[in-house]
Design goal:
This protein is mainly alpha-helical and 176 residues long. It is built from 4 helices and 3 strands, in the order H-H-H-E-E-E-H. A hairpin with an 8-residue loop joins strand 1 and strand 2.
Length: 176
């Protein structure tokens, strides 16, 4: 490959990886929205008209599916418990997301091995770690994972549309 082909390939590769990472983030927030709509007690919901993005640093908010620290695996498990009849989300998606969040990306630095590796390690025990995951991020692997995540997004998106209800109209102003 010449320099332009290398540059084009690396740009496409980076875009494909970025799209996969973005879709994983989109899947997490979509699951959170479905769970918020269907599994949040009324006393933990936000008041009518509240915009979560307007919350100020330090402001106290109720813990619910949008604000909790629950990891993706717990979100997927709860989603599947409540909505699995409408399509299950594969729990192995959480492994990929966790590897991106907590793993390491390595390159071999040689032209004959132009792909990155996504690796995740265990916590140390007696001074050593175990390799938990080691994926070669070939274009084929990334496309396959992207299709899995996209399929999950389609399932959750359909469920989100089904459970979304319009907010109640604001109370009518009273005339004196």
């Amino acid at each position: 490959m010449d320099n332009q082909q290398d540059s084009d390939y690396l740009e496409q590769y980076a875009n494909t990886l970025g799209r996969l990472h973005g879709n994983l983030a989109s899947l997490e927030i979509a699951i959170r929205f479905v769970l918020f709509a269907t599994d949040t007690p009324e006393d933990r919901k936000f008041p009518y008209g509240f915009m979560l993005t307007s919350a100020k640093v330090g402001e106290r908010l109720p813990e619910n599916w949008l604000t909790s620290w629950h990891p993706l695996g717990r979100l997927v498990a709860r989603y599947n418990d409540l909505h699995g009849a409408h399509g299950l989300i594969s729990l192995d998606i959480k492994d990929l997301r966790d590897a991106f969040a907590h793993g390491r990306v390595f390159g071999e630095g040689v032209a004959s091995a132009p792909f990155l590796h996504l690796m995740r390690f265990s916590q140390a025990v007696d001074g050593s770690v175990s390799v938990e995951q080691n994926w070669t991020l070939t274009p084929e692997f990334v496309r396959e994972q992207s299709m899995k995540v996209r399929a999950a997004l389609d399932v959750v998106g359909a469920r989100m549309a089904a459970v979304s209800t319009p907010q109640p109209a604001a109370p009518a102003a009273t005339r004196p």
